[in-house]
Input
Amino acid sequence: MKLDNATVLRLAEHLENCELQARDTLKITDDHPDMDWDDAYAIQDAIKARKLGRGHKVAGPKAGLTSHAKMKQMGVDTPCFGFVADAHAVPDGGEIKVSELIHPKVEPEICFVTKRALRGPGCHIGAVLAATDFVMPGIEVIDSRYRDFKFDLKSVIADNTSAARFAVGGRVRSVGEVDLRTLGVVLEVNGEIKSLGAGAAVLGHPAGAVAMLANHLGSRGDSRRHPHSFRRHYRSGRRQGGRQRRLAHPGPGLGVIAFYLRSRQCLLHKFI
Output
């Protein structure tokens, strides 16, 4: 690590205050160009500690940059990881106030809910599938705290991978009921298809990203001791910003979740 503990704590407080107060900031590597990956995750861990200290709980870890093409573009060979807290959760059919966010963007998700612990290193796809109780569709609203959505990878890791809000809904399915490799995602904006994706684009299989997540946590001494909800991103194309966005996620037996983002709030609806 290149940063001392006082600097890590100061940057964590700064970034979390930006999240809570919906105000942007310049990326932190502008002032700390020599910070390394351990520094970035240490700042994220300090943000987590601040939330836990106020009585919040971690809802689940999450993975980003889960396509080989995106990793190559960013010059890394592994996804980046963060977490979502209970304070980020929105009930299915709930509302999100855009005034509480900076520049929100939408990403479709598959949520893995495990029935037993996943531990790394050495976790693999087979172990993930065996430990998975069920999967379900979800939506994450990311909201980078960096001005004009401009950041580098170390800055975004420190900013907890832009975590802001998430919702889950639709029918739950066992991993034996759905082929996660061919499961499709359709991103629509006001009924117009903007992007398509499939599970195979995510490291060949979505469970591969979960395995990498478990191995990352294991390498940092944070193996899951309890059943946990592991979440990973579908990199289904460009993210959509702006108003009046609609996201539809049809999948075999999963139903459809529609996401509407308006000037003041977003409405989440489930269609079975």
